[in-house]
Structure prediction request, 307 residues.
Amino acid sequence: MYAPFRGTLLGIGITGATVAALAAGYFRSPRRRRYPLHGWLGMIALAAAELLLWRGIEPVPTYFTPIVWSAFILIADGAVLALTHGSRLHNAPLSMARMALLSIPLWLIFEAYNLRLQNWIYTGISSNWAAAMFGYAWSFATITPAIFEGADLVQALWPARPANPWTISGRAENLLAACGAACLIVPLLVPRRMAAYLFGLVWIGFILLLDPVNHRIGLPSLLGDLAEGFTGRLRGFLLSGWICGWLWEFWNYWAEAKWHYIFPMFQEAKIFEMPLPGYLGFPPFALECFTMYVTAAGLLGWLRRVA
Prediction:
């Protein structure tokens, strides 16, 4: 029998080790400058949120998730600025605001899938409709910026070395896109009792579908990076998925308004609220955040295409 308490302790240990690795990388960097004010404000907000959650002082327990993720964005951005002397909030605050706004409808795509697949539910949400919608919108607005800031931080801490270029043919790109489309369509076509087992296809479908399209039309893409021998972005987003995944589940576990996973597998073996295999989904989800944002921002004219 799997002990929930033991799983929680394991989760705390892994989350703590992940944060410690980031902190160690930061303090060992010879390139860092003075940590900026907005990063300190993020740390203060995070500490205050933890204290007020522990004391049960509303509205922090209800809005704990968006508060701590807003704080994370400030903290990570501050570290990137100190390490590289440039960051998204410092150099392009309007672009970050757009990213936060676009993050809401991008995440709602996954909520739409969940209406059929029924993989998670929310509890502890405010009974006031306006307050609940505000909480949802604020929470969803932090998802994409947090993933991007996490990737920036990884690349600032551990810059990638040039690698051998790796390219695939146009036919192979078409095959990847077709496989991605199939991954996204199949869960909607099979009976609902089977669809509940297929959310993993959704976690990879948008990568396979959209990254070849982004590459083909000259937008930033993982395939384009690999063709130039640059692996930093791929590694950065994969590790950002790991970092954000553990922090998402760690902070969600203690929050009053939270999500619970109800998919019909491994419910007896959880770390925090997430069944163990679910953690494998966070790295590809980070890649999806990248590809989906690039596609959407490109369509809106927010990203410049490379000829």
